[in-house]
Amino acid sequence: MEFILNLLFLVAGFYFLVKGADLFVDGSSSIAKLMKIPAVIIGLTIVSIGTSLPEAAVSISASLKGSYDLSIANVIGSNMFNLLMVVGVSAIICPFFVDRMIMQRDFPICIGATILLAFMLRDNALSRAEAGLLFILFVGYIILLVVSALKNRATDEEEIKVLSPAKSVLFIILGAAGIIAGGQLTVNSATFFAAALGMSELLIGLTVVAVGTSLPELVTSIVAAKKGESEIALGNVVGSNIFNILFILGMSGIVHPLSCDRGAFIDSLLLIGICLIMYAACKTSNKATRPEGIVCVFIYILYVLYAILRAYGMLPF
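Below the sequence we write its predicted structure tokens.
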């Protein structure tokens, strides 16, 4: 009975995280629009951060609870899922060309952030000073995006749904409450399953929790692919991965220094490899094809199998 109850709590946690993030973004975007902030700036800041709020809620909640492995694994697992499954599924649905700006600016920053994270995790810990550096880099990245957007105002302004001030505030409050409640439910349920099934927090963070918190990115990319706008998938993924490392681990580590299993460092090295392979593939052909998408999905399945076998001591590394 307890097992079923925690499973329901886990599903409810994911729902509250996703729905809460949607409400929070809608309310915050509306307030920003009422304050005459350009839509492009809203999209680069509030909306972009909004898709990473589920990961943020889980990682920060895990940090506060002392589940440091879960906090780090959630980010690494989400980034792995984003690069392989989100991009892979989008390419399978509709092959797409790669945006030049993403390859010149954002993807190299994503690779650099991943390398920096691996360097910081070499001692199986993320100190408060290291987390502070990540957060400072996050602020710098946001400033870079805003300055770049203001220089290239020729792009079309996206439509922002404007709500009444009272409704906007209500959405923000309900969204924040949903994110906090969803984060708590997800962390509590995940730690229960880790103990009940003899799984490490690292494994459950890399798999179940990472997939659940990456649902906004997956849904956004699939919808875009069906509309023939699947080039959004890569920008969505790269931006989210940068935010996950710099913003989420930065905030989580500032709340409390993080320690992790040796496997997290190994996974961060694997993530660097995946980033470099994806970058080289996109740079070479300037597009993501359906066969490449299938390969991405296959690699992700192999990675999950590897993580499971390693967690149960069936692999030496």
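The two ends are 36 Å apart (CA to CA).
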